[in-house]
Amino acid sequence: MKRMILLAACAIPAFASAQTAPKIDSSYANWYYEGRMELYNQLNHQPADILFLGNSITERGEWHELLPGKKIANRGIGGDNTFGLLARLDGVIQQQPKKIFLLIGINDIGRGLPTEVILQNYRRILTKLTQGLPKTKIIVQSVLPMNEVKLPYAYLKNKADQIRALNEGIVPLATEFNLTYLNLHPLFADEKGELKAEYTKDGIHLEPVAYVDWVNWLKKQKQL
Fold first, then answer.
1. What local confidence, expressed as pLDDT, does residue 23 receive?
2. What DSSP element (H or E) covers 103?
């Protein structure tokens, strides 16, 4: 009897731990995502010199206008996260781009996903891209800072530490896969480490001038 009681007592902490484990929200396929995928699936047969891959920060860039004369594929989807991006890599691989600029993760942070979960998805993304596109140059870009003063979205407030932790975790992954990592903060961050006020109206999305400076900066870094 004592043995049975002891076993039951030992089981309680494990059960309690399972009950308090954070819930992982891996959803991504909303109406907007599905609409963009309907479009992209019609375009995946077109080869691309440069493919920009990410969420709304990528999608809002007029890359084809900023880089005339090149075959550009904009594969940003507003609101996308690492789960959604991972699910659509077959189409990216189908296009066989010569170069990919990857930027993803802020929406994962916004929904409260643990950094280790996001980094696990990053590993899966980089594994699939490097295996499917062995000749493609993949540039992994840091997640951008936000501007707390301008942010109207409560769920994105006070995320600077997690952005920093995520970027610190991405660096060794890029090294492991022998990929270029670009820290965008020297361009986009002010002296306090926040997104420059002149680059944003809502604290997270970028103004057109930011994209112009971004492309010019990438050229100075000899990535374009």
1. 79
2. strand 99-103
User: Sign of torsion, CA 144 150 155 158?
Assistant: positive
Residue with tokens 């039951």: 8
Q: Are the C-beta atoms of residues 54 and 106 closer than 8 Å to each other?
A: no
Burial 45-69 (b: 16+ CB within 10 A, else e): eeebebbbbbbbbbbbbebeebbee
Torsion of CA 29, 32, 33, 34, to 10 degrees: 80
Q: What share of the chain is helix, strand, coil (3-state, %, to 5)?
A: 50, 10, 35
The residues, any chain, with a CB within 8 Å of residue 130's CB and separated by 6 or more, are 138, 177, 179
Q: Say whether 143 sits in a helix, a strand or coil.
A: coil
CATH, range 29-220 = 3.40.50.1110
pLDDT at residue 75 in the model: 98
Which of helix, strand or coil describes residue 71? coil
**Exposed, middle or buried, 146 (CB in 10 Å: 0-12/13-18/19+)?**
buried
Q: What are the backbone angles phi and psi of residue 138, rounded to the nearest 5°?
A: -110, 120
Q: What does the domain layout of the chain look like in residue ranges?
A: 29-220
Weakly modelled stretches of the chain, pLDDT under 70: 1-22
Asked if residue 13 lies in contact with residue 20, where contact means CB atoms within 8 angstroms, the answer is: no
